[in-house]
Amino acid sequence: MATQFNYDINPSRILFGAGKLNVVGEEIRRLGKARALILSTPFQRADAQKLMDQLGPLAAGVFSDARMHTPVAVTMNAIETYDALSADCVLAYGGGSTIGLGKAIAYRNDAPQIVVATTYAGSEVTPILGQTENGVKTTVRDLKILPEVVIYDPELTVGLPVSMSVASGLHAMAHAVEGAYAYDRNPVSSLMAVEGVRALRDGLRVIVGQPTDLAARSEALYGSWLCGSVLGTVGMSLHHKLCHTLGGRFDLPHAETHAIVLPHSAGYNARAAAEALEPLAKLFGGSIGGGLYDFARSVGAPLALKDIGMEEAQLDEAADLAVKNPYWNPRPIERDAVRLLLQRAWEGSRPE
Ligand code: NAD
Fold first, then answer.
1. Ligand 1 neighbours (beta carbon < 6 A)
2. How far apart are CA 102 and CA 151, in angstroms?
3. Are 316 and 297 in contact, with CB atoms under 8 Å apart?
4. Of 117, 165, 182, 323, which residue has the fewest beta carbons closer than 10 angstroms?
5. Nearest CA-CA partner of 185 in 44, 6, 350
6. 118: CA distance to ligand 1 center in Å?
7. pLDDT score of 1
8. pLDDT tens-digit map of 287-300
């Protein structure tokens, strides 16, 4: 039973449902704005251009150079384009990389942000920005970073390849699993965590066989909103520290790294956070680590760090880095236990 908690609610407007892309123009006007700079990655440029055609004069132009890890140099170019086109808001269309660029712009010029989220990463509902400069990644948290309007249109996720859907979905689940045992959790974040993981579990089970099933796509996107909201509300622990270390130092792919590490980090904390994790463990047959691993395997997720470019010889350094400046964690961070966790994640063996 909750006896004491604080809950800072993130103010944002969420529009969810098939066909919601059509309301983007109304939302620009609703914000009192008239010229949106549309952001995308090079890969989604055609979609961004289509959106520009749809918006007519409400679109100032397209900047389609969003990259992984939000390089500051790209942000500066985007701001130059924003000013040159006299834009008055940003419209990020894509996943975490594109959303990161919109946040980085808003952090500097306070541009209102509308986000159309097309993966399950969850960045659109957090006031957190990770950016890189001279090879160093830093993270800032500021309400200016939180997007004002988020549009979730499951029709836009129908083309997200199954492998990316699975990795992205498990990445989202990782926010909720860590949120479930966060030191600063509250009853609402805990409810969102369980419902988010449940919805993603159910959605992904269908998506792997029927990627165009709109009901399953809706379920998964709904789950990703909830899991992202947990990330935006409470602090993260060992799992996120491990993934930031692996991604930052060894350049491993982001969502896949989260997907592989999650069963192991959850298993690491299973006993220390047994009560908080119980409702999540129940969703996976009773054991959080083993259950998540079995689920990941059943939906064809990557299971081993060795399969995504990590060398066994790098595991010692990874363990050393992961235990430096640790985030709060329910179980003490012990170097030998973390090294063993990494070994098993590298091999792809089932957590005990
Ligand atoms: P991503 O944005 O890098 O997208 C990967 C690729 O998939 C891109 O080429 C993109 O254009 C493409 N893509 C996106 N949606 C698609 C769709 N529906 N169909 C086909 N292709 C599509 O990947 P991501 O996993 O969404 O984001 C990862 C980044 O987000 C990381 O840098 C991570 O640090 C950041 N992130 C930040 C937060 C936060 O709160 N700050 C939270 C989660 C993730």
1. 41, 43-44, 68-69, 94-98, 100, 118-119, 121-123, 126, 128-130, 156-157, 159-160, 168, 231, 254-255
2. 14
3. no
4. 323
5. 6
6. 8
7. 61
8. 999 999 999 999 99
